[in-house]
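Reviewers of the previous submission asked for a worked example of the structure-prediction workflow described in the proposal, so we include one complete record here. The input consisted solely of the amino acid sequence. No template or homolog information was supplied to the procedure at any stage.
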Amino acid sequence: MVKERARILVVGGGYVGMYTALRLQRRLKRELDRGEAEITVVTPDPYMTYQPFLPEAAAGAISPRHVVVPLRRVLDRCRVLIGEATAVDHAKRTATITTLATEEEGTGGQQLPYDHLVLAPGSVSRTLPVPGLADHGIGFKTVEEAIGLRNHVIEQMDIASSTRDPAIRDAALTFVFVGGGYAGVEALGELEDMARYAARYYHNVRPEDMKWILVEASDRILPEVGEEMGRYTVTELRRRNIDVRLRTRLESCADRVAVLSDGARFPTRTVVWTAGVKPHPVLAATDLPRNDRGRLRCTPELSVEGTTHAWAAGDAAAVPDVTAAEPGRECAPNAQHALRQAKVLADNIVHTLRDEPLETYEHAYAGSVASLGLHKGVAHVYGRKLKGYPAWFMHRAYHLSRVPTFNRKARVLAEWTLAGLFKREIVSLGSLEHPRAEFELAAGGKPSQDPPGNPKGSS
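From that input alone, the workflow returned the following C-alpha cells.
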C-alpha cells in the first residue's frame, strides 16, 4: 500500500515511456482501483513505434500498422494525453503541456501537476548545417518517414522509366544515404533489395542503372557489431554495387546535387539523413541536471542525480554502466538497455511509494544484430559472430520476441509467412500524403503544394 496519493507523469510514449507505464499499471493495480494513484502519459503520437522494424516496413515486408502499438489499448488504466511537454519545473512539480486543442483554445500550454516524473521523450535527429539538407533531406526515424521513403524510391523509378532526359533519369536513380549506423545501413540494405526486385517490372530500368551511395564520416560502419563484422558488411554492400564511402562527409545537397568531402558530386533527388540523434529539446527546458551531451545525469537506480521523485531512462538519460570494467562508462542509448531500464525504473517508483529499498540497474550488453536485406545480415551476440542467412534469421527471431504484445507478434509473423509464399508488393501510395489534392482540383481550388521538384504525391 502506498503511503500517499501519487500522481505519476510519464513524458514520452516510446520504449521507456510505454513499458514504464505498462509495468506501473500492473504493479499499482489495487492503488489505481482505490484512487490512490494515477498515471498520465504525455506523448505526441497515440502509438509506440517499434523502430527496428522500420527498414522492413520501408521495404514492404511488414505493414506500417504492425510496426506501431496503440497506446490507449495497451495502457488501458492510464490517462493518455496526446501532446508534448514543452517545459518542466521540477522544483514546483509542474510540467507545461501543449495538446492538439491548445492552438484552438488560444490559452497557451496547460500546467500539469505531478508527484513523480518519468522523463522519457526519446531523441530527435541530429542534423548539421549542410546547405540544402532542410529542403531536400529525408529522415528515417518515424514510421511516416519510412513509408514516405518507400513511396519516394518507387516514384523515382517511375520518373526514370518515363523521362526522356538522361540527366533527370540519372538523378532519379541515384540514392544517397548519410550515416553508417543501424538506421542508415539497414534502411539502405532493405530498400536496395526492394528496388532491385521492383526493377524486374520496369521495361527500361535495370538494377545496375541505380546508384546507391552510403556516406560515413568515420572509418567504419555498424560499430555495434564489431570491427570484423563491420568490414564484412562493407564487403557485402560493395558486392551489391553499393558505393560505400568511409571517412567522407556530405558537404552540400543544395540544388539537388550531393557534394561530398572527397570531391565527388552526385545529382540526386534522394538524400536520406541518418547521421545520429541528439536528446529531445524538452530536456533543455527543465531545471534538472544534464551532462555535456545534453542528457540527464542519472544514478544507477535511474533517478535523476541530486533530485527526488524525478526519473529517466533511454535516450534521455546518462545511466552509469555498473557492469563496465572501467569507471565512468555509461549505458548505450539503445533499445536493449531501454527495455530493461523501464522495468527497473517502474519497480523503483513502486518501491519509493511503498518505502522499500531501490534496485540498481545492471545489464551487460548482449550484442547486436543487423539486417542487410532479405536473407542477409550480420550479428555479434555473446561473442559469437554470424553473417548471411543465420544472422538475418537471428535478427528476425530476436526482434519478433521483443516487439510488444502478442497481437503484434502474431501479425508480424503472419506477414513474414505470407511474404515467403507470395511476391513482394511494389506499389507506391504516395498520394496518401496529400489526400485532398484531387478533390481540391475538382472543386476548382488550388491543389496543395508539393515539395519543389517532386510530382504530386511524392515525398
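Confidence is low (pLDDT under 50) at residues 450-459. We consider this example representative of the routine output the project will generate in years two and three.
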